[in-house]
Amino acid sequence: MSMHDGHRQRLKERFEKEGLDNFEQVQVLELLLFYCIPKQDTNPIAHALLDAFGSITKVLQAPTRELMQVKGIGESTARYLHMIMEVIRYYSVQEQAVNRILTNVDMCAEYMIPFFEGRRNETVFLLCLDGKCKVISCKKVGEGSVNSAGVPIRRIVEMALGENATSVVLAHNHPSGIALPSDEDRLTTIRLAYALNAVDIELADHIVVADGDYVSMAQSGYYHPRDCRLPI
Which residues partner with 206 through β-bridges? Predict the structure, then answer.
């Protein structure tokens, strides 16, 4: 057994006994790399990843092409590391039971925040609810650059109709880390509300997510659903 093999075995055994709580970031990366880089000292590669991205969170959020720029990281390893964050997000979303009843803004935000974990681009999701505020679906409806994501109003209306929703909640993230609605966010919200009200669906709220926090446009006074109802 080589020195590297002994180190790998000790780190694996430590993980089995202790979990990851007392591991340094570089050791966690080493452990992950064991399973896609055989028979090689992964410590220098783990250090190189941290030097390049700053933290294990940033490493796991990095696109495959950026990971491949680090010495020692090939395409398979880059895809493996990138997939970990996708699996984390998938797990978080699956933990949210589809048939949950969401009766207030905080519950809707708590339900939707996991959909944005690890996303570097601005992304839009639509939460569809039935007449009893039970979740019908929560689906991605748009994705843009780091600074903006188009909100396809026609597509949102068609999706809400297709899901037979009574009300919907729109949510998008600000990768910049500031959950403050922009003027464009407010204008788009009003336009969408009128379009949905025309087919008897209420836009209950528009939530802006950033770094696990959120701002409700309805709760904060940026958007008033009743003001966007069409006259009978």
Answer: 170
Whether 146 shows a pLDDT value over 50: the answer reads no
pLDDT in tens, 30-65: 999 999 988 788 999 999 999 999 999 999 989 999
Give the span between the Cα atoms of 50 and 69, in whole angstroms: 13
List the beta bridge partners of residue 209. 173, 214
Sheet with 135-143, side-by-side order of all strands: 135-143, 123-129, 167-173, 202-210, 213-216
Residue 160, judged by CB atoms within 10 A of its CB (0-12, 13-18, 19+), counts as: buried
Predicted local confidence at residue 143, as pLDDT: 84
Q: How far apart are CA 204 and CA 191, in angstroms?
A: 13
- pTM > 0.85: yes or no: no
Q: Distance of CA 14 to CAs 19, 71, 165, 178, Å?
A: 7, 27, 50, 39
Residue 200: phi and psi, rounded to 5, are 65, 35
Positive or negative CA dihedral for 144, 148, 154, 156?
positive
Average pLDDT rounded to a whole number, residues 66-70: 94
